[in-house]
Every structure is written in C-alpha cells, then in structure tokens.
Amino acid sequence: MFKNVFGSGFLVRTAHVILTWVITLILFLHDTELRQQEETGQLVQPVLFVLLVLGSVLLYFAVSLMDPGFILSEDRDLQFTLGVTEEQQDMIPPTTKSLRQRRCGHCLLQQQPMRSKHCQTCQHCVRRYDHHCPWIENCVGERNHRWTGFSAAPSWQQWLRSDGVLLAVAVLLALLSLVVLLLLGSHLYLVSLNTTTWEFMSRHRISYLKHCGADENPFDRGTFHNLWGFYCVWGTVVWEQVYFREGSDQV
C-alpha cells in the first residue's frame, strides 16, 4: 500500500518536514503568544498546536507514500489488469462501440485499464490517473482520492452500526462549516460597510451614531475603498476627519 520512504521524492518530503518544524520552532522561540503561554504554564494551546502540526506531518507522509493505484505488472489474471471482476463484467451492458486496446510502451502492458495513464515520474501506469502532484511527490489516482467513506449495508441498523460515527462526524463538520461561513459572510458585509460589530449592534446607544439614519454610515467610503483600507492599508486613521468628511489622512 505504501511506497519506500527513501525512494523518489525523498528530498521533497524532507524539505517539507524540515520547513514545517523550523516554522514551529520559530513560533516558540520568538515572543509569540505560544511562547508566552508556555512560559506562564498555560500548556493547553501549545500542546494542541504541536499535536496538530504532528498530525499534519503524519497525514502528509500517509498521502505521499500510499499507493495511488499503480499497475505493477500483468502477470496476474487479465481481469485484474483490466480492473474488472467476473461479477462486474456481467453487469456491463452490451454495446456496439469498439474500443481500441491501449498498450503502454513504457511498462510494456499489453492492455491498459480504461482511464489509466503512465506517469513518467513514478514510472508506473496509474489507475484513474489524475495528475502527478509535486507537493506530495506522488500521483493522484484511484486509491488515494479518499481513505474511507460510507459503505452499503443490508439494513439501516447495520448501516448505523458501521457508519454511525462517520455520520456524526460529517454532521458536526457540516454544522461547524455552516457557522464559519455565516461568520465569514457577516464580517465581510461589515467590512464592506466600514463598520464594526459593536457599531452595527449598538448604534442606537453610541453618541456619534444614534442621530444618523438607519441606512447612514458616516465612515462608509465606498465598498472598494472600505475593503482596500481594511485589508491593504497599514496605519492609524483619523476617524474624526472621515466622520466630518475633511479627509482621511493617516498619522
């Protein structure tokens, strides 16, 4: 299932891992919040951060080293080479279309399975070949699109027993993603108006806003200018000047 860790792409994998841990080390050596929490004995966030980095490195190696669907040889039966079992062969409807048998001139396979292609970097034909990814130094193919997923079962009770945890995780991720998307949308809306959450929620109690109309925002300089100022301009703005429309020079 997995390739040799010291094979093709060893330098790429090593460089990625070294870069990951060097950045992590810098975050703990410089005056960052992680270092401050470590020095004061608040270890929950630093430990979780290190575990997250470690998990990401392990997942990177798993994706990088796993078999993407290499067709190693055609010494096995023809059905394996074609990727079709006897039962699956019976399910294929008859057709009048004639398919030209594809032969790989590199692997010397007499018949390439449909949708497979020879990878010049990996030196193998790959089932359902997508592309060779230089970041993981491995092909993306039939066997590494996903690791696991929902499986069929004869009854709902058996299905829930086998896939219940995965279903719960999927629902939780969907809810969390929805919350994140709602927060992202609401804050992008506020940024485009050049207003803050506090000003948006409590404008009727803020002295410099309560006399303004419901759709009036004295700090609004136009959507593009608002977004540009928020994301691209660094400095302190004299908001009194913006409020009275005397300019928006920075100090």
UniProtKB/TrEMBL annotation:
<feature type="domain" description="Palmitoyltransferase DHHC">
    <location>
        <begin position="101"/>
        <end position="147"/>
    </location>
</feature>
<dbReference type="Pfam" id="PF01529">
    <property type="entry name" value="DHHC"/>
</dbReference>
<keyword id="KW-0472">Membrane</keyword>
<dbReference type="InterPro" id="IPR039859">
    <property type="entry name" value="PFA4/ZDH16/20/ERF2-like"/>
</dbReference>
<keyword id="KW-0812">Transmembrane</keyword>
<feature type="transmembrane region" description="Helical">
    <location>
        <begin position="6"/>
        <end position="29"/>
    </location>
</feature>
<dbReference type="InterPro" id="IPR001594">
    <property type="entry name" value="Palmitoyltrfase_DHHC"/>
</dbReference>
<dbReference type="GO" id="GO:0006612">
    <property type="term" value="P:protein targeting to membrane"/>
</dbReference>
<keyword id="KW-0012">Acyltransferase</keyword>
<comment type="similarity">
    <text>Belongs to the DHHC palmitoyltransferase family.</text>
</comment>
<keyword id="KW-0564">Palmitate</keyword>
<keyword id="KW-0449">Lipoprotein</keyword>
<protein>
    <recommendedName>
        <fullName>Palmitoyltransferase</fullName>
        <ecNumber>2.3.1.225</ecNumber>
    </recommendedName>
</protein>
<keyword id="KW-0808">Transferase</keyword>
<dbReference type="GO" id="GO:0005783">
    <property type="term" value="C:endoplasmic reticulum"/>
</dbReference>
<dbReference type="GO" id="GO:0019706">
    <property type="term" value="F:protein-cysteine S-palmitoyltransferase activity"/>
</dbReference>
<keyword id="KW-1133">Transmembrane helix</keyword>
<feature type="transmembrane region" description="Helical">
    <location>
        <begin position="165"/>
        <end position="191"/>
    </location>
</feature>
<feature type="transmembrane region" description="Helical">
    <location>
        <begin position="41"/>
        <end position="63"/>
    </location>
</feature>
<dbReference type="GO" id="GO:0005794">
    <property type="term" value="C:Golgi apparatus"/>
</dbReference>
